[in-house]
Structure formats: C-alpha cells, structure tokens
Amino acid sequence: MYYTEITKIIEAGIRKDPAKVASYSRLLAKKLSADGEERASNRILSLLDKMGNGHAVMDALTAVPVDQDSRLDIADIDYDPRVDHLILNESVLAMLSDFQDTIQNKNKMMSLGLEFRNTLLLYGPPGCGKTSTAKYLASKLELPLVTARFDTLISSLLGNTAKNIHRIFDFAKKQPCILLLDEFDAIAKARDDVHELGELKRVVNSLLQNIDDFSQDGILIAATNHAHLLDSAVWRRFQTVIELPKPGSDEIRRFIECFPKVTDNIEINEPEWRTIAGSMADLSCSDIKDIVQNTLKKAVLKKKTAIECADYLVEVFLFKNHGNYNQEGVVHFLYEKGVAQKQIARYYSISERQVRNYLGKGMNK
Asked: What is 223-253 written as a DSSP string?
C-alpha cells in the first residue's frame, strides 16, 4: 500500500541522501495518519525530529539550482499554492479530478500491475487558467509547486540549456513536489522546424529523456499557449492532455460571483446577466478578472450602494477600447446591449434628451 514511499526511502538510504529519506518519510507518515495509523505516523515523525531532519524537506527545496552562466535561479517554489476552487467547465474538472485520483491511488494501481505516467499537458489561449490549474492540483495533493523559470532556464549559452533542464528535473526528484514547465513550447518545439538550430533540437532530445526518467515517480505538469508548436514525440509523453478554452457563459457568471461583495445590493436580473456574459464571451479569465476588479474598485470609490448591469458593461467597453473612448461611444455601446435610455441617463447623470442626441448622431452617420 505504501510501496512508492518505502521504495524511495530505501533508494535514498542506499545513496546516502538524508534529505530525500526525510522527505519521503514525512510523506509516508502523512499517508499513515490519513489511514488512521496515528501511532506509526507519530513514531516516524518523532524519529525524524530526533535525528535533526525535521525540516529536511524545506532545506532540500531551498537549494534551488542555478544557471551556471548567469548564476540566477532556474526555478521558483511555492510551498503553499492555495487555490480553493477553479471555474472551469464540467468536462475539464472531471479530467482534472481523474488525474488527481490516479495519483492518490498510485500504490493500488502499482499493486495491480498497472503502469502509468504522472504527466499532464495543459494547453489553450493565454489567461485561461493553466497556471492556476497547476496550483489547484498542488493544493489538492498538498505538495510544493516547483515552477521552471524559462527566462533563466534557457541559457545564453545554448549548450547550458540542456544541462539546466537536467538540473531542474534532478532537483524535483529529490523531494515530493509537482514540477511545472510553463511556456512549454519554448523548449519543446518540433524538431523538424527548419528555422531552429541543431543545438535546440538536441535540447528537445534532452527534454524527452528527462521526462521519461522523471515521470515514473514524479508529477509533471506542462503548459503552453502554442500547442501547435510542440514536437510530436512530446505529446506522447503525456498521459493526460487537457485543453483549457476561454470560459463560456455559465463559467463567466460563476467567476464573477466568486469575487468579494462590495455591496449586498446587486440590481442585475437574469437577462442582464446573460448580456454581461455575452459581452465577455471572447475574453480570457485573466481579462474578465481585470474587468470585474475595476468594476468593484470604482463602486467602492464612488460609494455606490448597488451594482448594476451598466457598471460591468462600461468596464467591458473600456477594456476592449484600451481606455480610448468618449461618452457618446459608451452610450451607443450600452444601448446596443439593451440598457434603456432612462438607465443610461441616470448612470451618467445626464438628461434623456442628451442620450437621444448621442444615439441620433450615431444613426445619422
């Protein structure tokens, strides 16, 4: 039942690696405690403390590898990547849950002779939750998240890039963690790309070898905005592949409702919620987050007692026009989205006649 942890402890002991012994011993103690074996768990933890290895996991993780050329760290470590929940469609959440369950039942799988790789590839447009998904899984599995820093991983000396890749995989092997390779296409481009140098093709070969070695025991997540650039052999290294698309109408509303309330009075009906979601249909989660935060910020600054449909729509207009607008343009946008002339007039503290004048100018153009 605890085959993986016991095997890793034995391997680390033979190799005289006390940090790894302590790391996997703590993981074993945690699993024993979860299964109700408190006595055995406490004995392991007590022994670690007596041997002075109580913080070996943290010590091992702080020794982050560096690029030999620049001497800069090639990884960032998040010890507590808390993401309580994700706003994704049901099919994506189901696949993530399956990936999580598979990892948590690894010992049972191995006892049945089943082989699998702890590898997950996330792809989709920028700002649609790939990094947040990695943090969510790390939080659920209660593991540190080790994220490769591609600004230093890719060395100015091309020969060092393959060495850096090996360093970060070797580093992630030394303790239970999740290794995240964000912007994955930077080192996993197709080897038949005529524009790439031979050295970069050797980098891909090194990457593939390291993935094969690491994925038997380690947990690897890769993320890319440019899936079409990946080498065909890279795809085969990932047992689970998930596309994270831009959010649909249901996800947009749930996402908005997750933000803190700045007032208990929300004057938005169901048709208006559909209008708001429709106005954001082509945006990423990151874009929507900016819009909602700006909406709530202005509501606080203006001391508004209620949030209405126009508040969100105005911020959508400003976002899509990069702040380059005039009042007439916003009035047209609100009217086209179904906001009544009376509401527009009240929102801008102008007369309905002025609203009609704005709209009349647009119709005469």
From this structure: EES-GGGB-HHHHTT-SEEEE-----HHHHH
- pTM, two decimals, is 0.77
Look up residue 241 and give its two tokens: 């592949």
Exposed / middle / buried, residue 70 (Cβ in 10 Å: 0-12, 13-18, 19+): middle
Do residues 345 and 325 lie in contact, with contact meaning Cβ atoms separated by under 8 Å?
no
Q: Give per-residue pLDDT as tens, 2-18.
A: 767 787 788 777 766 77
Residue of 178, 175, 176, 218 whose CA lies nearest to 19: 175
Rounded distance, CA 96 to CA 114, Å?
20
- Of the candidates 33, 36, 59, 58, the residue with the CA atom closest to the CA atom of residue 46: 33
- 3-state SS assignment for residue 58: helix
SS3 50: helix
Tell me whether residue 177 is exposed, middle or buried, using C-beta atoms within 10 angstroms of its C-beta: 0 to 12, 13 to 18, 19 or more.
Answer: buried
| Strand stretches in 114-155, DSSP E | 119-123, 145-148
Instruction: Tell me the per-residue pLDDT of 219-247, one tens digit each, with 9 for 90 and over.
Output: 999 999 999 888 888 999 999 999 999 99
Listed in sequence order, the residues at least 6 apart from 66 whose beta carbon sits closer than 8 Å to its beta carbon are 72, 73, 74, 152
Q: What is the pLDDT of residues 31-83, one digit of tens each?
A: 888 788 888 888 888 777 766 544 444 455 457 888 877 788 888 888 777 77
